[in-house]
Amino acid sequence: MDKETWSRRRFIGQAGVGVATAMAAGALDSLAGVTLTYPQAGKLALLGGKAIREGKSWPTWPHVDDKVINKIVETTKSGKWSRIQSANGTVATFEKTFSGLIGSDFCVATGSGTQALSTCVEALNIGAGDEVITSPYTDFGTISAILTSRALPVLVDLDPDSFQLDPDEVEKHITPNTKAIMPVHIMGLPANMERIMAIAKKHGLLVIEDACQAPFSRYQGKPVGVIGDLGCFSFQASKAIACGEGGAVVGNNQVMMEECFTVQNRGASRAGKNERIGPKYRMNEFEGAILMGQLDEAKSRFEIRDANAKYLSEKLAAIPGLTPQKQYEGTESGSYYNYAMKYDSEEFGGVNRAQFLKAMQAEGVPFTSYIRNGLHREPWVDTILNQQVYKRFYTEPRLRSYREAMDLPNCDEITDKTLVAFWGSAVLLGSRRDMDDIVNAVTKVYENRSLLRNV
After folding, report:
1. Which residues contact 327 (CB under 8 A, 6 or more apart)?
2. Which of 99, 125, 251, 253 counts the most CB atoms within 10 A of its CB?
3. Which residues are bridge partners to 324 per DSSP?
């Protein structure tokens, strides 16, 4: 679609200001005599104009209501604050309820999403000398979970349009020491699990899904988290289901899930026998209470976020220079922890990402660049390469090649230039009018792009 055709598109069916007004302000490019259809066209808020979202607020998250408060009070009064005090307490009840909602046979709750991932790595007997392939574009908890067992996190480059692991790069980095792949469903959208599972089967590898941002997302008829061998979720305060900190492992393999229970229970099995190495990663009853106060409405909130994201993608896809996050064939829904797009500076007349973000934020739309650095550019890499445990279990040539492989240009482009996003957990709970405001703000910034070059 060329720019002139795009200028004729009517995104929001509201009365707008005419070209004459906008042209008098010297603001607009490529209008070709077409009347704009968004209400506050004209001077950018960054340059002193009226903001699209002036005087408006976004939904807040996490949501606290009487259900949550009553569950906390009930738990406090019970005096049962640890999961080991009751087989029918809030944590055990949460595990049963959450596994039913997700679509897994089993669930083990933990104190965080990072702990859930770490539990899986340890339960699958992945340790020193082993390698796990994962994404550089994620929270450090993904990497930390591998390092905790002294395994080697092998970071590979991304698909520049989906911000997810590139399966071709995954296969290139498999070695005799590779034991697992840990795909990250970044932003809450499914990774390319069809390819990843095929690669894992071909090479005899385990798959641990980092679904921390993706509860209820579905891919090719399956819920995210039960496509691989094990899946992990986070309930940290910013997540779509939140209890401050908290996490869960889900799966359909009872033997694996019992090992996960034993690991997170500081090595003690359900039978009470101390069987293996394990930290204490148990979720407490207060976290379980907060979660149980939310679960009744968790699925409906997911559906609101997913529907609003689909609406935005339909509207914003036509704007030159902004491409909604690529979704793989078979993606049915997403939880949209973040709503992300790829930004093309050239289509915005040379306006760089930082200038675009400033303009959007001034209009009251909280776009950011999200993760500022790929994890291959963080200090932990040199830290582990200098530790005796890594020098002992990995050869010098392997550690040298590992260091040299930290050249991930697609990830660098995403973090440095192309990705723009806003926090979906809160914003996507808004009304359609709120979503229209986002479209209007993007449209306004695009039409005024020539004025942003020197900002």
Report:
1. 162, 189, 190, 334
2. 251
3. 341
Amino acid at 208: I
Cβ(233)–Cβ(103) below 8 Å? no
pLDDT tens-place string over residues 32-78: 333 334 444 579 999 999 999 999 999 999 989 999 999 999 999 99
Question: Other CB atoms closer than 10 Å to residue 237's CB: what's the count?
Answer: 13
Structure tokens at 169: 């790069």
Burial of 258 (0-12, 13-18, 19+ CB in 10 A): middle
Total count of residues recorded for the chain: 455
Q: Which long-range contacts (CB under 8 A, 24 or more apart) does 260-266 make?
A: 260/108, 260/119, 260/120, 260/123, 260/230, 261/108, 262/123, 263/119, 263/122, 263/123, 264/108, 264/110, 264/115, 264/119
Residue 59's nearest CA partner among 305, 361, 300, 293 is: 305
The DSSP symbol for 253 reads -
177-206 confidence digits (pLDDT tens): 999 999 999 999 999 999 999 999 999 999
Cβ atoms of 403 and 385 closer than 8 Å = yes
Q: Looking at residue 137, what DSSP letter applies? A: S
For residues 165 and 209, the answer to whether their CB atoms sit within 8 Å is no
CA distances from 77 to 73, 89, 111, 286, 291 (A): 6, 13, 22, 11, 17
115: left (phi over 0), alpha (psi -120 to 50) or beta: alpha
Close Cβ partners of 130 (under 8 Å, ≥ 6 residues apart): 151, 152, 177, 178, 179, 180
> Is there a contact between 320 and 337 (Cβ–Cβ < 8 Å)?
no
